[in-house]
């Protein structure tokens, strides 16, 4: 169960950001996300790596 897919709301809670921020990061900062039908899903380890590499920083992608 540790490696399950997380929803937009769950990844937002995990990162401490609002769902609008998650959608913005997907489109503007190449946040690792997978679209399953209409829903975005996330792997926690992929998002952790992205954050460690500075993916959520203010200046990346601007």
TrEMBL record:
The residues covered by the Helix-turn-helix domain are: 5-53
Which Pfam family is one of those matched by this entry? HTH_17
Q: Which Gene3D superfamilies match?
A: Winged helix-like DNA-binding domain superfamily/Winged helix DNA-binding domain
Protein species of origin: Candidatus Methylobacter favarea
Q: Which InterPro entries match?
A: DNA-bd_dom_put_sf, HTH_17, SinI_DNA-bd, WH-like_DNA-bd_sf
Name of the molecule in the record: Transcriptional regulator
GO function terms (MF aspect): DNA binding
């Amino acid at each position: 169960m540790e490696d399950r897919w997380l929803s937009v709301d769950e990844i937002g809670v995990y990162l401490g950001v609002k769902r609008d921020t998650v959608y913005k990061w997907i489109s503007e900062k190449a946040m690792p996300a997978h679209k399953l039908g209409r829903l975005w899903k996330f792997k926690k380890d992929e998002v952790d790596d992205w954050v460690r590499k500075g993916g959520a920083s203010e200046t990346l992608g601007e």
